[in-house]
Design brief:
The protein has about 220 residues and is mainly alpha-helical. Helices cover about 70% and strands about 5% of the residues. It is built from ten helices and two strands, in the order ααααβαβααααα. The protein has helices at about 5-25, 30-50, 55-65, 70-85, 100-105, 130-150, 160-170, 180-195, 200-210, 215-225; strands at about 90-95, 110-115. Helix 4 crosses helix 9.
Length: about 220
């Protein structure tokens, strides 16, 4: 179950608990909290298995909209992915800064930069080309964390990015010990790329803040490299 679904359940249960404690004072029937819990768990299960957590992600986004720092972090995180993917010549197909934007674009996700995922056949899993391609994608996946570290001194997001590295290493049948090495190297490479192209990164953040299309974001990067 996605973390956002768990958070929504926790918030709902807390609210139901409060209503149970205050129920006698408010003259609420005892059956009301039980029905509320049943409905809440049903909605959470439906969201998780039918919408893959999209509903709870949208709810979390709506609750977080009052936080300027949260929105800014997400924007800088995704701009890091975008810039590094561009610099490493990985085609970008689109982006969404939050789950609601992703939903409107027909994407079943919490948002983010979308680019062509690596497709590794059995014939190329052990080839030198695949290893080079892996390094590029790892750098792109760690670029969001690198951007947050660079701007804020720490990173709050990036768990799913790390999971992608684990998944692709497993697909390529690489040893588990290789994960941390790949992660650290990719994080350093991504940070170096962003630092080297700080002007392009800054202007890209502004373009993505305005939700400019991918082609315009490309143009902004090219003008400021």
């Amino acid at each position: 179950m996605r973390q956002t679904s768990l958070n929504a359940i926790a918030i709902g249960i807390f609210a139901v608990t409060i209503s149970t404690l205050l129920g006698p004072a408010l003259n609420l029937p005892q059956v009301v909290p039980a029905i509320a819990i049943f409905c809440l768990l049903g909605l959470a299960a439906f969201d998780t298995f039918q919408w893959q957590g999209q509903g709870s992600a949208i709810l979390s986004d709506l609750l977080a909209r009052n936080s300027d720092e949260k929105r800014s972090r997400i924007l800088h995180h995704e701009a890091g992915h975008f810039l590094v993917a561009y610099l490493l010549e990985i085609p970008i197909t689109g982006y969404a800064i939050n789950a609601w934007e992703a939903f409107k674009q027909g994407q079943n996700s919490q948002g983010g930069v979308r680019f062509e995922d690596p497709k590794l056949s059995q014939e190329t899993q052990r080839s030198e080309f695949s290893l080079q391609l892996l390094d590029r994608y790892c750098t792109v996946w760690m670029a969001g964390i690198a951007a947050e570290n660079l701007i804020y001194g720490n990173a709050e997001g990036g768990a799913e990015d790390r999971d992608k590295i684990r998944a692709i290493l497993s697909q390529m049948r690489r040893p588990d010990s290789e994960f941390k090495v790949k992660e650290n190297r990719a994080l350093l490479q991504a940070r170096n790329l962003i630092e080297t192209h700080q002007l392009a990164y800054k202007e890209l953040v502004e373009a993505m803040k305005k939700r400019e299309p991918v082609a315009e974001c490309y143009r902004v990067i090219q003008q400021n490299l």
